[in-house]
Amino acid sequence: MQYEEILHRCFRCGYCKLPENYVDFNCPPYLSFRFETYSPGGRMWLIRALLDNKLAPTGRLQEILFSCVACANCVTHCTFPKFKDQLLLAFTAAKEQLVNGGKVPPAVRDCLTRIYQHGNPYGHARKKRDAWTDGLKVEPYSDQEYLFFVGDVGSYDTRGQEIARSVAGLLQKLGVSFGILGADEISDGNEAGAMGEAELFKYLAEENIKTFESRGVEKIITLSPHGYNAFKNDYPGFGGNYSVLHYSQVLAPLVKKAAFAPDQPPLRVTYHDSCYLGRHNMEYGAPRTVLTALPGVELVEMQRCFQNALCCGGGGGNVFTDIIGSGRQTSAGVRVGEAAASGAGVLAVACPQCAVMFADAVKVQNLEGRLAVKEISEIVNERLIKQEVN
Amino acid sequence: MKEILQALVEIVGTEFVSDQPEERYLYSMDPGTMPAREPDFVVMPDSTEQVRQVLLLANQHKIPVVPLGAGLVLSGLSRALKGGIILDMKRMNRIIEVNEMSRYALVEAGASQGMLQAYLKKHHPRLKHSAPDAPPAATIAGNVCIHGSGHISHAHGFHSDMLNGLEVVLPTGEVTRLGSCATSDYWFSRAPLPDLAGLFLGWAGTTGVITKLAIKLYPNYRFNDVGVFVCEDARLMPDILYRMSETQMAEDLTAWMTPKPDWARGFLHSNINYGANTKEELIWKRNLIRASVSEYIDRKIAGFIPMPAAMKQPFLEVPARQLSRFADVRKGGGFEYVGVIMPVDLFAEAYELGLEIASRLSVSYSLGARIIGINHCMMFFYAYAFNRADPADVQRAQRALEATNRAAVDMGGIPWKAEAPAQKEIIRKMDPNMFALMNRIRAVLDPAGIMNPGNWEID
Amino acid sequence: MYELNYDPQICAKCKTCDCLMKCQYIDFELAEARVEKEKLLNGQDTRILQECTTCYSCEEYCPAGNHPFYQIVERQEEKGFLPVPEPITKQQLTMMEPRGTITPASVSAPVINMCYFPMLTDSIRGKLYENTSMIVGSDIFCNIMWLHFGKNSAIRERLPRMIDNIQQFYLKDSGVEEVVCYHDECYGAYTQLAPAFGIEVPFKVVHLFEYLSNKLDELSDQITPINAKVAYQRPCSNRLIPQTQHWVDDIFQKIGADRVPREYDRDNALCCGQVLRAQQRDDLADDVQKRNLDDMQQAGVAYCVFNCPVCMFTLADAVAERGIFPILMSDLCQAAVEKKAE
């Protein structure tokens, strides 16, 4: 297995479980399940034992490995500089080993199968990929400046579709030239890769790259930080080199110049750093720039923010497989509680997956009415003055 | 076994009991060198009542019970030497109360050092607790009950000295409060009642399960500084430490002697940490400390290393991350140490012993000491790194640990949180009447012999 | 070998004793200065040896260029007057030891010599350093710092090796004949100290500030003026090469920085304090730093500009606490040409 040489070097000191200020556990599966086996260090030793045939790839071991949300809190906080950057790569390699041996939880198997068969993890028809545009005139990509890559959640999930509409609408209002691939878009593959299905990831990437090449794509705006991560960091390895931006990075300079109605009602907002924007790609500023540009908006930070943000629990395919969801204390639930405790009335996100995870959590935690989960373009759209719209 | 599993499930819920190979494997060992011993069950209680029910069940069926904090003891004290239940306490991690005026915190036994540190920083910034050098995931209760020490132990003693009171569940199921909390709603001290808390300190979990505890808190200074004093002669160390401690300015006084990096080899460093609420006070304290050792400075045989602020940061960090990194010295994720509690007078001999063993047994080492109280004693540590993927290397470290334990006991020291074999070394030198009394107490408290059996036993 | 080019006759005849009378850290009446100078000449104990802060300044003050400071250090070592406690000196000697890991590398002019400051190599970037080569490491460390430790022997032992390393491993086969010294310390070592000890330097050296000044001329149309008051922290090693001082003014003028007059600048510059702490003279270090920082604050500066990384590491936090931005000259110039001025 790739990276197996680092497994035994983990001392299990446990810095990986925590944020920098140690306030509470910051590893979503560990937070949910609480057995040491679900901690990053526990995982390291279990994988070693699996390779040494001291443990079999049981259903529980599969569950332990696939409950990892790839949030990279462990990578950020591991105290061993010589191998910390490889932690997540080792976990993914172990998942790949299980995938190749056909030893994966049914939910993962089904999810990967749907991606393979339909190009998306929902198993929905490809031709419905642009259903989200309903009511919005969005041009197919031809010679516009940017390709707007919507991704699976924005294309098919009801909440994701709302967000895709909001972002696309705002980009239009701000004069950004973009088009979409519609039915020609397939999964960016980031989650397939995170679930250890390297071959499927490669296939998806190559298919997307073929489409991009045939359509002359050079610049991409992604809706999802997950897609942003794949295009920016993984696609070059498959031969696809593009100028990639997350939509918040496009909005940041434009929103600063936009016109807003004066005397906006005050709104206290806290921002949740998506893992693939934050820890994976160090983009903490752009979404905050967007929010702080809005008159009346007061940005407050949660106790865990920036590189210490607690993941929504949706990464690593968990938004589709929900393996982590069987634990008692979900990180999405803890996170919305933390957002409410910050005194904010709105929890702002810049990732459709986070939005989906938190929408459920707010209900489960009985925070409806106290805390609204909004995607950042939705907050901007509420405050733009009307004449700017046209 | 099935019935026991079912009974445990009924107590704590399905998701918090495991008899699965993954948990049994991982909970069979800690990061140190002690051989793996598999438990039959791992159980995670959420309340004192659940702990009580688990103990009643275990007592009834004579099933061993091993309480576990973060599992960072390194000397294997929380392995299930005779199988049974590992009671992972980390779900019980609530911070129940902080009494600002009386400067104490009441926490559940699974609360971690890091969590309390963060809580105090946010809600009681004028207060701090004494944090050990263990990683922040380490539990407060675990460290107190092994007589741990930490970053203000020079000023205030062992962590067990900072204990105000306990709630414990006895092996027979009685929930018992010890200290002022036994009589009052306040957890302010162990005095003036008969001090029964000692029945749970230093016993390696053989007398009961701690479920709550209150610890003393101390002023959290706005400004903190550290001086690193260096000399070349171990024989000078007791006097240097004596002089520095005489000022009573320091919160922490530690020594470190390590062969890596190269520039540090052969030198003896004393870190003196102190704090103040104003910069003027900080400088005043620094000057007093400096004056205490001026004789050595004037003779140019010792001095404070000049360090820009950025270089001091690793020495001011609580806990110090860099200490964990010793585990990667042999690229093998392991170290264990013998921490010997001994008089400061023995510093030079203790140091020579470490060099001798490291050289004779070819182990990667790091030596150091924390001065506990104002030179009242020290915890002198001998840390040996090993590569856990190489059994021969693990064995080498094990041999060094054994040799160190034996020699330390002979020298007049007592290994702290001693491994089961080292406990036997201690018993070898122990007043037989004390050992007999320990056994009588255990027989009374734990008639079925369920609490962490295999510890504090001859065989 | 490497005899110090020092003429005792010059000192013997000297009536003004500028080296002592101008000293910022030891107070002398002229009569006393003459007596102490005599003792130094005769190899006797003198308070000069004990109280010298090793600030390098008397190298600048001596009108005859007779290297009084190097002679003081010679005597300190001969007589065992260690300015810094022995364990610290030994640790430093090990810490800064050449590792012998240098390997031949092809370089092209201009070659920026980063001495032994690997942590600063990131600052060699951008327009100012386009098409430059960089050399760095323990094997090219200029080793002048031993002047602070009463250890001319270490300079004699190590400096020639370093010079040879630069020449043999980098310059010779690359056909390059000069290096740009990032730090005053190196420039001082190769142009002033090495000749004083008869150590041959086969390459030409350029001071970073001369390089930057020329570069700023090239990029003049891209400069956004800093438009701020600045203080300059003149390092001890610049006392060996006072003729380079004008580059500081030239650069400030080119980037629109206003070096406001203040008491502890130029000839009256104060030590950053780090060496004083190594000498265990915290009281003096506190006093020197306070005076220096008070002075900067009173002058109302926005930036404290450094050439010496050690001065910067030592003073950065204290400077920042006063609301003054600590910055290396090179980075300030980068900011000016990259429109990133704070």
Written account of the structure:
The complex is a heterotrimer of chains A (390), B (459) and C (342). By secondary structure, chain A is an alpha/beta fold. Chain A folds into 3 domains: 101 residues, no CATH class; 132 residues, Rossmann fold (3-Layer(aba) Sandwich); 131 residues, Rossmann fold (3-Layer(aba) Sandwich). In chain A, strand 7, helix 16 and strand 8 form a beta-alpha-beta unit. Chain A is globular, with a radius of gyration of 20 Å. The mean pLDDT of chain A is 96. Chain B folds into 4 domains: 89 residues, Uridine Diphospho-n-acetylenolpyruvylglucosamine Reductase, domain 2, CATH 3.30.43.10; 128 residues, Uridine Diphospho-n-acetylenolpyruvylglucosamine Reductase, domain 3 (2-Layer Sandwich); 96 residues, Alpha-Beta Plaits; 96 residues, FAD-linked oxidases, C-terminal domain (Vanillyl-alcohol Oxidase, Chain A, domain 3), CATH 3.40.462. In chain B, a hairpin with a 4-residue loop joins strand 17 and strand 18. The two termini of chain B are 26 Å apart. Chain C contains 15 helices and 8 strands. In chain C, the strands form 2 sheets. A 4-stranded parallel beta sheet of chain C has the order 2-1-3-4. A 4-stranded parallel beta sheet of chain C has the order 6-5-7-8, sandwiched between helices. In chain C, helix 10 packs parallel to helix 11 and helix 10 runs parallel beside helix 15. Classes of the chains: A alpha/beta (390), B alpha+beta (459), C alpha/beta (342). Chains in contact: A-B, B-C. At the A-B interface, helix 2 and helix 3 of A face helix 2, helix 4 and strand 16 of B.
**CATH fold-level label of the largest domain in chain B:** Uridine Diphospho-n-acetylenolpyruvylglucosamine Reductase, domain 3
Oligomer: heterotrimer
Q: How widely separated are the two ends of chain C?
A: 51 Å
Q: CATH topology of the largest domain in chain C, what is it called?
A: Rossmann fold
Q: Could you provide a short overview of the structure?
A:
Chain A has 390 residues and is α/β, with parallel strands linked by helices.
Ordered list of secondary-structure elements with their pairings:
The complex is a heterotrimer of chains A (390), B (459) and C (342).
Chain A: H1 28-33, H2 40-51, H3 59-66, H4 73-77, H5 87-100, H6 106-118, E1 146-149, H7 151-156, H8 158-173, E2 178-179, H9 190-194, H10 198-215, E3 219-222, H11 225-234, E4 243-246, H12 247-257, E5 267-271, H13 285-292, E6 297-300, H14 318-321, H15 331-341, E7 346-349, H16 352-364, E8 372-375, H17 376-383, H18 386-389
Chain B: H1 2-12, E1 17-18, H2 21-26, E2 41-43, H3 48-61, E3 65-68, E4 85-88, E5 95-99, E6 104-108, H4 113-123, E7 127-128, H5 140-145, H6 153-156, E8 163-169, E9 175-179, E10 209-216, E11 218-219, E12 223-231, H7 237-246, E13 252-257, E14 268-276, H8 279-292, H9 294-298, E15 302-304, H10 309-316, H11 321-324, E16 333-342, H12 347-361, E17 364-372, E18 377-387, H13 391-411, E19 414-416, H14 420-429, H15 432-445
Parallel strand pairs in B: 2-4, 3-4
Antiparallel strand pairs in B: 1-2, 5-6, 6-10, 7-11, 8-9, 8-10, 12-14, 12-15, 13-14, 13-17, 16-18, 16-19, 17-18
Helix pairs in contact in B: 1-3, 12-13, 13-14
Chain C: H1 8-13, H2 18-21, H3 30-42, H4 47-51, H5 57-61, H6 68-79, H7 86-95, E1 111-113, E2 133-135, H8 152-174, E3 178-181, H9 184-196, E4 204-207, H10 208-218, E5 228-233, H11 245-254, E6 257-259, H12 274-278, H13 282-299, E7 303-306, H14 309-321, E8 325-328, H15 329-337
Parallel strand pairs in C: 1-2, 1-3, 3-4, 5-6, 5-7, 7-8
Helix pairs in contact in C: 10-11, 10-15
